Amino acid sequence: MDFVPPIYSDLTEAEWEIMEAWYEETDRSGLIGECAVPLSSLLHGLVMGNRIARIVQLGTCSGYSSLLLGFMLRRMNAPGGLFTLDIDPELCALTRRWLERAGLTNFVTVAEGNSLDPNLLAAAHQHFGGAPEMILLDSSHEYLATVEELELWEPAPAGGGIFLGPVVV
User: What does R_g of the chain's alpha carbons equal in angstroms?
Assistant: First the structure.
């Protein structure tokens, strides 16, 4: 194919090497859980096009989108710009290890806990010193949990902020 989506073509050679190594490890261990290219591309346009520098991600999984968002935040010189959380301690540790390897620990904070815990909503506000500009809901994908997350987190973005999540019917 003659086209490489900007989410990937913007990566430096070192960042690309990190992503390739991440794919090798997560594929080998069966932990791969990357955000699809269309959603990653949407995030790239929203974040980079609007300089969104206070992002909450509900559902870290194995760190793919945390790495990509971290690379964007580093390009924008937006330290502390991503507060990502997951309930699984092993996945949080995996993500932290990859963020450290990529040199992104100043741009991404990984919190361990349940996204339905109101204390994590307060922790996100404290982390940013105010309301997040964007919330990306990509955690359990279970209907009732998603509805509860929507009820808790939907009012959280700053005025004019963005909330990205599943359609719940």
Answer: 15
